[in-house]
Amino acid sequence: MFRRPRPIRSLRPTLPIARIRPASIATLSPSTPKPVGDISSVFPSLSGTPSPPLPSRFADVKKRLIHDHESQLQESWRELLAVLLLKREWIKESRSDVIPEINFNDLNDVVERTDFRDALHTAGVAVIRGVVSEKEALDWKELVQRYIRTNPGTRGFPSKSPAVYELYWSPSQILARAHQNLLKAQAFLMSHWRSAPTADSNGNRTLISTSHPVSYADRLRIRQPGDSGFALGPHIDGGSCERWEEDGYGRGGVYNAVFEGNWTNYDPWEMTCRIPVQSDLYTSPGGCSMFRMFQGWLAMSETGAGEGHLMVCPALKEATAYFLLRPFFSPKKTFDHPDYLEPDNWTLEDPLTSNLQGAVPGNGQELNSILHPHLSLRDTMVHVPRVQPGDYVAWHCDTIHAVDNIHTGTADSSVMYIPACPLTELNAEYLARQRDAFADGTPAPDFPSSDEGENQHRGRLTPEFVMKNISVEAQRAMGLAAFDMERRDMLEQERVVLRRANEILGFTGT
């Protein structure tokens, strides 16, 4: 048994709560609302929408990416396929044991941290045990279920029997995002990212702070036994086509080493190159425009393999390199040939096509065994370890993940989606728009719009409640209070990003 931390003071608001926008909070011009939709809007496999061929311009994109690196790419591909075979055997043998776990109370233990760090950098996935108490997590589930019952018009997917609810501002979600332990866990996880030199050739500083997590309002899931509607297969969030496009991830050269035939030099944990990335070029419903270092959720139920649980591919670097390079190679022999997966059967496309297997503009990146055969997804997708209410599960933003096709358990599988996001200028700009959505009770800016959202929901929390009842650290994470720039142990570049964030959020003179 692991020790659990003491919970913060319980905040159980009485329904209903008034909607009041604090007059002291500056607002920016609203962004263009996303189309109406739900979580299926960004995944063709959920919506059943056919994926049309990509425009021919993507052939030119691919050509520019590998220009003058064709021979290196072919050799790099062969090396990658050999490494993937070894990874597959390692994952098949170890299964969920490859995913590191650490108790919340051990986050300051040097030995525990070191072992955890090494395993996290390999797998890209982790479990932090006991971030909040089991009782508090279960109370939040009870509270959100009451919120749903009180507001029967709440939308979700599937529409007739929702498992994923279009909720962003329920009391449970606000209180969870604001919890001091969760903010500490997020900062701890983000500390495992690395930074390039503090200034580039033009003298531009790396304006990012991983010690100041910012809130990202996301949905929640309550999946009942027997559900097969929320059967989300292997995918990666944060855009799809954008990972190959110059105006997407190309802005920071995130994957340059991979496209130049040096995938072994690619560092998935280097954060500087991701700061300028545009991951939502198509303004799609559910497309993420914020830099989320980790996606994550807080468990509100005891859940294990087969019970509507999360599955991941814990080969972060190799799997990323593979799905990025897959569009440049084609087989000589068909899939039913015994040598289909052999390296000699795969050669650079000539001429290059517009295919980006599993990528559709405005959708998430999806993967499967036909389009991405060398990933051996049936063998390499493993369940995260069994979780208890109050555990926090997080995975690198490039991690391939999925959920059980069928929930075969006997109790609900429930989580609140709460990613870990650093403070950057772009994230502060998003935070300002999200703050307006919070005050209005409308969906967060990245998510599908609706006529009213939670605007008329009884019991919805407001910024006023946060300002009166929740810590200043949580207020800052939500963009409701100015960041403190007076801490003496702060690096100058961190002080600069705090100042810029305060300006963006309308806290001038701070």
Describe this protein's structure.
The structure is a single chain. The protein is an alpha+beta fold and 510 residues long. It has helices spanning 44-47, 57-66, 70-94, 110-123, 134-150, 171-178, 180-190, 256-259, 316-325, 377-380, 425-440, 463-469, 472-477, 492-504, and strands spanning 101-103, 125-129, 156-157, 164-165, 209-214, 220-223, 235-236, 294-299, 310-312, 329-331, 346-348, 365-366, 382-383, 392-396, 401-403, 413-417, 421-423. The strands form five sheets. Strands 1-2-14-8-16-6-4-3 form an eight-stranded mixed beta sheet. A three-stranded antiparallel beta sheet has the order 13-9-15, with no helix packed on it. A two-stranded antiparallel sheet has the order 5-17. α4 (110-123) links the parallel β1 and β2. α3 crosses α9 (316-325), α5 (134-150) packs antiparallel against α6 (171-178) and α11 (425-440) packs parallel to α14 (492-504). The longest helix is centred in the N-terminal third of the chain and has 25 residues, at 70-94. Mean pLDDT is 89; it is low at 1-30.
